[in-house]
Amino acid sequence: MSDPDQGLQSGRTQRWDRVPELGGPSVPGRPPVPPRRVAEPAAVARDQHAEPATAWHAPAPVTTVVPQQHPDPIWDAADSADDGEWAFAWEDDDEWDDEPVRQRDPLWRLLVRGAGELLVTAGLVVLLFVVYEVYVTDLLNDRTQGNLAEQIRDQWDQASAAPENLVAPAVGEPLAILHVPRLGEDYSRVVLEGVSEEQLAEGPGHYIGTALPGQQGNLAIAGHRVGKGSPFLDTDKLVPGDPIVVETAQNWYVYRVLGDAATGDYTTDASGIPGQQIVKPDDVSVIAPTPGAAGAAPSGAYLTLTTCHPKYSAKQRLIVHAALDGDPVSKAEFPDGPPALTEG
């Protein structure tokens, strides 16, 4: 039997007709086999401490495969004469050097700026305080007065039907209800015993030791003009002859501002007591039993209202004097108030 490999140039492993996948000449009756594509080896990074490869040493071990990177091209004048020259390295530019360096503000300017900011802050605080005193406290006082009105009327409902014998209540407790038609048809304020800020924050206060409603002497009542309900805000609008009505458990007491109702003159009353006057804060003679006559015995039954003057200031005091007009009006006969309550 003849050798099938006879006539070949090399051994079995080099026969192209048996290993066609390695490429080679075409075999009759078969399509040509394309040569195998061998991928280009990637660049490798070798250990720097490895020994160099020699004929008798193995190559250094591969530690990391680093993909080949192509540096970005550098634009040069040779490529374009119109655009100028570009390179990666930054070159000095005169425009950057000419930028001014910001200087630190001098001390006096810092002080002025700080003082201005402090004044603005202080102004806002003062403004908020004024808004609170003028408006917010009025809203709060309305609720307080409503509670006091319920309290005093509950006390009156529980009182006996015996003839009224007024006694000053404890400090801070309701004494009576003040009605001033000139200041509004529904104007009414509960009067508390005492004139400290604690009482005046809730409503008008009765000067301790002065006369009670309807008694001989001077029923003196103080109240804020602005804020805390502003009970005496428009007291200066009272004119001679205006009624001021004080309500108690069983009676209505009507006082009238002193002066000539026809002419509006406050100084014409026979008693010599003016219906309205402006005094200093330390002038306490206005709440004496006979107003303006400190130490003198009572010469009648008077009512005095005191408040700050002018508005939004406590520099002076606005005083209104009134005298009792007739006998008390029984609430049994006039439960809704005397006729004078509808004047004004």
From TrEMBL:
<dbReference type="InterPro" id="IPR005754">
    <property type="entry name" value="Sortase"/>
</dbReference>
<dbReference type="GO" id="GO:0016787">
    <property type="term" value="F:hydrolase activity"/>
</dbReference>
<dbReference type="InterPro" id="IPR053465">
    <property type="entry name" value="Sortase_Class_E"/>
</dbReference>
<dbReference type="Pfam" id="PF04203">
    <property type="entry name" value="Sortase"/>
</dbReference>
<dbReference type="InterPro" id="IPR023365">
    <property type="entry name" value="Sortase_dom-sf"/>
</dbReference>
<dbReference type="InterPro" id="IPR042003">
    <property type="entry name" value="Sortase_E"/>
</dbReference>
<feature type="active site" description="Proton donor/acceptor">
    <location>
        <position position="224"/>
    </location>
</feature>
<feature type="region of interest" description="Disordered">
    <location>
        <begin position="1"/>
        <end position="58"/>
    </location>
</feature>
<feature type="active site" description="Acyl-thioester intermediate">
    <location>
        <position position="308"/>
    </location>
</feature>
<protein>
    <submittedName>
        <fullName>Sortase protein (Surface protein transpeptidase)</fullName>
    </submittedName>
</protein>
<keyword id="KW-0378">Hydrolase</keyword>
